[in-house]
Amino acid sequence: MTKIFIPKEKLAAIKGGEWTGHASVGFIKTIGVLELLAAVGLILPAVLDIAPFMVPVTAVCWVLLMVGAAIIHGRLGQFKLVMVNVGYVALAAFIAWGRFGLEPFTG
């Protein structure tokens, strides 16, 4: 969410945010919006029982987003952040696998 509201210059000055110095403002804001939508898409459909099929779809999209983030952080040598991204990938993959196959919300 910080990518949506914090200016690019401040993000670039934060440890782990160096990648924003090489990205356009539009790209940074788009990533922020995608992250916010992913959080909403992972939680609300299941909680409200509205379109629960969106949870695993969102989880797959989150996997793709985090793989991209891991690649960017890896290129910058930020291996701690790569491991954070790998953790997010594992969690989202677990959700997608569980909701697509093992325990879908709809019977």
Notable characteristics:
DoxX family protein, DoxX, 107 residues, 5 helices, globular, single chain
Describe this structure in words.
By secondary structure, the protein is mostly helical. The protein has one domain (2-102). The chain has 5 helices and no strands. It has helices at 2-5, 8-13, 25-48, 54-75, 79-102. Helix 3 packs antiparallel against helix 4 (54-75) and helix 4 (54-75) packs antiparallel against helix 5 (79-102). The chain is globular and about 40 Å long. The termini are far apart. The relative contact order is 0.12. The model has no long low-confidence stretch (mean pLDDT 90).
Compose a concise summary of this entry.
Helices cover 75% and strands 0% of the residues. By secondary structure, it is mainly α.
Helix-strand blueprint:
Blueprint: H1 2-5, H2 8-13, H3 25-48, H4 54-75, H5 79-102
InterPro entries: DoxX
Organism: Micromonospora zhanjiangensis
Protein name: DoxX family protein
Question: Quick one: biggest sheet?
Answer: none
How many individual helices?
A: 5
Secondary-structure content class: mainly alpha
The ordered string of helix (H) and strand (E) elements is HHHHH
Low-pLDDT parts are none
What would the principal axes of the Cα set say about the shape? Answer: globular
β-strand amount: under 5%
- What is the strand tally? 0
Oligomer: single chain
Q: Helix amount, in percent?
A: over 70%
Distance between the termini: 34 Å
Number of domains: 1
How would you state the average pLDDT, rounded?
90
Rg over CA atoms, rounded to whole Å, is 15 Å
